[in-house]
Amino acid sequence: MFSCTIWVREICWGLGYMNFGGFTGGLYTVSEWIMRFFVVNILWVIFNIPFLFILFNMFFVGQIEGLFFLIIILAILAPILLFPATSAVFASVREWIMKKNEHGGLTKTFWIFYKENYKRSLLAGIIFTVMWVVWAFDVYFFSNINIIITIIFLIMGVILFVWTINFFSVTVHYHMKLFQSLKNALLITLGSPLLFITVVLSSAVILYIGIFVFQALLIFFASSMIAFLSFAAFYRSYLKIVEKEEIEE
To answer: What's the whole-model pTM score?
Structure first.
């Protein structure tokens, strides 16, 4: 119950950026935000078509050798496609949350961020992909040997997921070297329980609904919604830190 309350509070705080004024203004604002989530998510899907195609085919592979082969292809494609596109999504939602519009339309903004962050996202993608592949093979290996170790690795997987998400928030918000961004994202992941819970719950709920309830959510809104809620929670934590430092000064 406590975790659910935290998650709902963070969502409401993020949605507080949407200014509703009157019925007509509110209707326009709602439609505008739906269009934002839709367009950015579709762009993310388009840029990740090869990756998503391979990922989809993994569910229909009958032999373990074929599954390993597809995992290798995904590991190659992830740094090239998935990470740059996801960074562009986070950079786009950052603009919304901070009420900036420096580049014009949604597609133009997405493309600008994609190009600007591509090399950095590629390098980070290689690092995170290696960790994810090692994690996946460890889970597979220990799943038939020791249940306790398997559970430990699953918990580590959750931490790695939040670390990955927080890295996107850090890398689009701060101007710092890659390894400094990785380090700060890890420190935030381990040192901000509220942010950790928010990222896990919001992502889990959106993915659960998209997989088991309303599959169209995955195609049209999932990645942009996860990015929006995750960065909103991150930005709130950032503002609290800044406020605390100003008080101490």
So the answer is: 0.87
